[in-house]
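just leaving the lab so this will be short. what follows is a protein written twice so to speak, once as letters and once as structure tokens for the fold. can you read through it and tell me how you think this chain folds. anything you notice is useful, everything is just below:
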Amino acid sequence: MVKKLLLIFVILAVIVTVLFFALSGNASKTADAKTIQVEKGTIVDKALAVGQIEPRQESSVKSKISGIVKKIYVEVGDYVKIGDPLIDVAPNPTPIEFATAKRNVEIYEVAFENTRLEFERFKTLLEKELISDQEFESKRAAYRESELRLQLAQEQLDLIQSGKTQIADLKVDNIIKSQVNGMVLQRLVEVGDPVVPLTSYQAGTELMTLAYMEDLIFKGTVDEIDVGKLAVDMIANIKVGALPKDTVRGEVQRISPKARQEQGSTVFEVEIKLTDIGDNLLRAGYSANADIIVNKKEDILVIPERLIEFVNDTAYVETHDTLGDTTRLSIEVGLSDGIKIEVLSGLSEGDMLVERPPREIE
């Protein structure tokens, strides 16, 4: 009997000891836990676009005649207007090209003179009614054709010699002039460089790049995860790498309907119109990141998202009242930015939430 009582006493002592340490541990953890107050704030849901600042339209300057660069009238950074001279391209024909053009003119001059004399003779014969009108018209057509051949040969020689000629209402000039108002972004040739002309079968030498710098846009890419949230006319805040203290405003203007692969990721191109650049001087090629505002809520109840425990589709938090009691509550949540989350119901402003210390890894 004594042994049984002794055994019961030992078992009770062990149970009491275990409960004591367990309760002491929980009390210690609760004491170490922080409390955070439910308050009102703002949550912004954003999509990130990575890209750069570019002119809406760039123009490549090319020559319609071959030769070498004789003179350059503008430098990179200069503003030009329509009609301003840019580059003087001096013809540089090979000896055989010049000789061929020169001899063609002489040949067609002889042919034209012969045709002219014959036409004058037929004209006299027509006046004497010795030939028909049909014969005369045939000779006049041959005369006109000979005249045009001589004119073409002379125009070709003029282009080879001076780079200038007049063809009907079209004036061909070796001085290349600006076709747009804008700034010189690039100069790709130096004096003495050869120039290949732009034709229907060759691209030609690119001499300069011009752009209207008053109309800049942001061009970048958005990850496929975010592109479904985007819509035209959404507001964007753009941070330019070279201007870390300032923010440029813009509006989404175009979202590509087709994805492309970039470094193993699927991305979509977006184009954002710059609406407010402030006093900033933007340059073509500046790298930038755009935060596109998908949704924004102000003056709402917010809590740190890390305080929430999600079980299936239900969100739970722990509240701490003035008596020190901790209660587990289910709440309804809304918009999140990944750090803060909106509370739709279940909590009130001023409620205190428990933030447990992180678990120690044993």
Observations:
- The CA atoms of residues 101 and 157 lie 5 Å apart.
- DSSP finds four helices and 22 strands in the chain.
